[in-house]
Amino acid sequence: MVVVDTQNSQQFVKPKGVFCEKVVCVExxxxxxxxxxxxxxxxxxxxxGEFVMIGLPNQAKPIxxxxxxxxxxxxxxxxxxxxxxxxxxxxxxxxxxxxxxxILMRPKPTGTLVNDALIDGKNLYLFSTGTGIAPxxxxxxxxxxxxxxxxxxxxxxxxxxxxxxxxxxxxxxxxEDPLVGDEAKGQFVYYPTVTQEEFSNTGRVTDLVQSGxxxxxxxxxxxxxxxxxxxxxGSMGFLKDMKEILLTKGFVEGSNSSPADFVVERAFVG
Length: 270
Ligand code: A2P
Hints:
By secondary structure, the protein is of the alpha/beta class.
């Protein structure tokens, strides 16, 4: 396939092995956030929580960015949740995609926000800010998550109430999910917080963990590495602060090759 780049008149030639998929759905939530779904190559497999490299066929050397796959591994399509950055190298164009447009996807998914990177535990905390909720949209619809943990707590901190829309819909969809809905009704807890507007829960989740308010609200004991496990995804500052809190409490960071108490991954930006 050949697409002419109108900006610099160079030709885009699809590299071997890269998937070229069609956009099947786009939903805009705010002027900063949107979701899109693409066709799924039949040979493409991934583990819940992993990310892939996504690009657009609009220039000779496409720009790729890491995107968490925001749907369960059995989904017939692939979903992504994205920020819109006006001058972002990829998202300045990606935010304009429409149904039928083409998206490039590198074939190898990877990532640490996977059940395999955590040792067994009782409660699984999925701590997210902004688009960092995306990998958890996959993890919370994986039956293995409900087999491995008794309670799964998804926290999502955003600046504004409107930015919670994707997570709220995800929560509702999970409770109705044909595969995990029954388990989710008893095991899945959703805890949204807002930092720059009035809302039922206000403040950064890091502060709510430190003050103990999160646990009072959830009626759960304070974090303990003997019992709890964590996944963290969001902005750099959030990852740093949340990781520090867990390390101070004695949690050990895990990876695919060395599973432990918690794992961390940066949410996509730009
Ligand atoms: P705040 O409004 O207090 O900065 P962003 O859109 O900048 O990625 O932020 C998304 C959410 O993450 C915001 O609610 C923001 O709160 C929060 N946040 C940003 N940095 C941190 C941090 N270091 N720890 C906890 N929450 C954070």
